[in-house]
Design a protein that fits this description.
about 300 residues
Length: about 300
C-alpha cells in the first residue's frame, strides 16, 4: 500500500467517526445513553473478533488475553465506558458539532495528564495550544461564560476521561496485539453498559430494536471497521500526516450535523471551532517536527 492510499483510508476513517456522532445523537431519541454504549460496544467487539482471530493465527498466539493482560485491558475498558457514556449523556443536550470539537480537546489534555500521572513533561506547544482551545470553547459557547450547556460539560468530561485512557493505553500497550486489545476493551465496555444500564435508566428490547441502525453504525462501522482501517493505514504513512487526516473527525461531525440534523452555528461558533481545530493540530504536529540538518553541497 502506498502512502496516498493509506492517507485516503485515514480520511475515510475520520469521515466514519464524524458520521458516528450523528448516529450517537439520533439514537438518543429511542434508547438511553448507558444502554446504547453497552450494546454498541458489544457489536464492536463482535465486529473486531474475526480480525483478532486472524491476527492471532498469523502471530501463532492465543486469541484471548492472559489473566495478567485481562486485568490491564479491564482498566482500559472501564475508562472507555466512562468516557463514551459521558459523551452519550452530553449528546442529549448538545449538538453534534459541539460534541465533535469538544471531544477533540483530549489531544490537548493528554500531555497535561501525563505530567500529573507520570511526571513526563510535554512539548512546550501544549501550553499555548491549551489556551487556544479554552478560547475556542468560549467562542463555541456563544462568547459568554453562561453559554455552555450541560451536554457541553459532559463532553468535556468525556475528553478528560479519554485523555486518561490514552495515557494508560500508552503504558500497557507494549506486548499486546492491537486487535486483541481492541476486542478485549470493547467487550469489557459493552458488558459494563449492560450491567449498569438497568440501574440508571429504562431498559427494554424495543429500545434496542428502535435504535438498531444507529447501534450497527456506531458499533460495527464506526467501531470495528474504522478501527481496522486505522490500524492498517497507519503502518504506511507518517504520524504527522495520520494526525491531519484523523483530526478531520471533528470537521466531518460538523458537516454531517449540518446535512442530516440541520445544525447551524454562528460566526462566533465557527471561530471557536477553528481555534480548537488549530490547537489539536498544533499539539499533534509540532512535537513531531524535527529540524533536518542542512545538506552539504
Amino acid at each position: 500500500m502506498n502512502r496516498a492510499t493509506a492517507n485516503l483510508l485515514l480520511l475515510v476513517t475520520g469521515a466514519i467517526w464524524g458520521g458516528g456522532f450523528v448516529a450517537q445523537s439520533t439514537a438518543m431519541d429511542a434508547i438511553g445513553p448507558v444502554l446504547f454504549t453497552g450494546v454498541r460496544f458489544l457489536a464492536a467487539a463482535a465486529a473486531v473478533l474475526p480480525f483478532a482471530v486472524i491476527e492471532a493465527r498469523m502471530s501463532g498466539m492465543r486469541v484471548l488475553p492472559t489473566m495478567h493482560q485481562w486485568s490491564r485491558f479491564a482498566l482500559l475498558g472501564t475508562l472507555l465506558f466512562a468516557s463514551l457514556t459521558a459523551q452519550q449523556i452530553g449528546l442529549l443536550t448538545t449538538t453534534v458539532t459541539n460534541s465533535g470539537f469538544l471531544t477533540g480537546i483530549y489531544i490537548v489534555l493528554t500531555p497535561v495528564i501525563g505530567i500529573v500521572l507520570w511526571r513526563v513533561w510535554p512539548h512546550p506547544v501544549v501550553w499555548p495550544s491549551g489556551l487556544m482551545a479554552l478560547t475556542g470553547i468560549f467562542f463555541l459557547s456563544g462568547g459568554r461564560l453562561g453559554g455552555m450547556q450541560p451536554g457541553d460539560w459532559w463532553t468535556l468530561l468525556c475528553a478528560v476521561l479519554w485523555a486518561l485512557h490514552v495515557q494508560v493505553l500508552g503504558r500497557i500497550v507494549a506486548g499486546a496485539r492491537p486487535l486483541q486489545l481492541a476486542f478485549s476493551q470493547f467487550l469489557v465496555c459493552g458488558l459494563l453498559g449492560l450491567a449498569i444500564a438497568p440501574l440508571v435508566e429504562p431498559v427494554a428490547w424495543q429500545m434496542i430494536a428502535a435504535a438498531r441502525t444507529e447501534i450497527l453504525f456506531a458499533g460495527v462501522i464506526s467501531g470495528g471497521v474504522a478501527f481496522t482501517l486505522q490500524a492498517v493505514a497507519q503502518r504506511h504513512t507518517t504520524a504527522p500526516q495520520a494526525a491531519i487526516f484523523m483530526s478531520s473527525e471533528a470537521l466531518f461531525a460538523a458537516m454531517f450535523g449540518a446535512i442530516f440534523l440541520g445544525e447551524r452555528i454562528g460566526m462566533a461558533g465557527l471561530l471557536g471551532c477553528a481555534l480548537i481545530f488549530c490547537a489539536i493540530l498544533a499539539v499533534e504536529l509540532l512535537p513531531a517536527l524535527r529540524i533536518r540538518p542542512a545538506r552539504r553541497g
